[in-house]
Amino acid sequence: MKQSTGLFENITTVSEATRVGFISKLEEIKAEKGFKLEQEGHVSGYLYYISEGSARSYYTRENRDITVSFSLEGEFVTAMHSFITRSPSYETIETLEKSLLYRISHQNLQQCFVEFPEMERAYRIILEKYYIALEEQLIFSKFKSAKDRYLELMDKKPKIIQKASVGQIASFLDMTIETLSRIRARI
Amino acid sequence: MKQSTGLFENITTVSEATRVGFISKLEEIKAEKGFKLEQEGHVSGYLYYISEGSARSYYTRENRDITVSFSLEGEFVTAMHSFITRSPSYETIETLEKSLLYRISHQNLQQCFVEFPEMERAYRIILEKYYIALEEQLIFSKFKSAKDRYLELMDKKPKIIQKASVGQIASFLDMTIETLSRIRARI
DNA sequence: TTTAGACCTTGATAAAAGTCAAAATTTCAA
DNA sequence: TTGAAATTTTGACTTTTATCAAGGTCTAAA
């Protein structure tokens, strides 16, 4: 599980004992494209770390799926609302491509907090990052025109444009496929 | 500072020592309407607990202010992005009415984490609540029609409609004052 | 290689919301 | 209480984006 060493890199310094204890609770997942990490209606079971690949979170409304977020390599992902509240998730998360993931179950994470109080801090920092990403997304969603939202995405997360389909991007940007297509034609 | 005892109620159980230690670091603020808790361009200094009253967070774009969130009695509020990253805040937070607040400085909170590791957990839970509120707001912002967003606000946070001005509510709901006025006329 | 289905683009039209302007109403201090 | 300023509403018109429909294009299985 050597690849998972990068997992703590951007978070915080923890003792060797905590690191080893935490890593021993991780599970490696090799997922094909379209593998579902979390499912709508189920309580989120795991916190995932994307070592390689990418994922998309979405929910369904009126028979179409609406993308909530994209997650790239080096990021943590889960249905956070469900993971926190232990209530059924409204979102489904699936890989956008063949991916290598590490995950820890909610229960094991709680166990970690008890065994290694340092982990509280590490997790707090994950939460903070998650929070900030969400806040940026909210500000982003306030960009009034469809064109501005697209340009902002191009600027901030260009990888998503390569990895996701037009429909996935359009719903993420809160516009129709047609509008996105026209914006692209005009640039 | 007896009113502040309600402060931990919905969070977690902490030991008496931690509670006393934490409370000793709190500062009571009696604020008139329009008192600024945090200012755009400054690094957020405090985490506030609203004991009585309410607050509004907003940023300025093209000479008009855009409301990001409303906070009510019993909630924590700060310019979280700035509070976490220690970079200048893009938002200003002010009271909507005469309010009673308790606040802890960022530095004292960090000190608390060192003195009372239990506080990591309590703060983590505040962060989780903050996160969930933000996520709900994001979903809410995806409600397509202006009318739906207004009805949702009426349903979920009717108090805001009494406390805030039309302009504040309209910018929060991502519509013009005129559109909000017309929606209200039609209901 | 062919071809069905999915995916994407383009066009015409409609609906939603924005802008600008003016009138009505409310608020608050003199 | 009154009048000026601020806030809210209403109206006419414009812009943006959605919807519906029809063509293209790409892709993968036969």
From TrEMBL, chains A, B:
Sequence ranges assigned to domain Cyclic nucleotide-binding in this UniProt record: 10-121
Signal peptide: none
Positions of transmembrane segments: none
Domain of life: Bacteria
Keyword Transferase attached: yes
UniProt-recorded Gene Ontology molecular function terms: kinase activity
Record key words, sorted: Kinase, Transferase
Protein's UniProt keywords contain Iron: no
InterPro entries noted in UniProt: cNMP-bd_dom, cNMP-bd_dom_sf, RmlC-like_jellyroll
Name by which UniProt lists this protein: cAMP-binding domain of CRP or a regulatory subunit of cAMP-dependent protein kinases
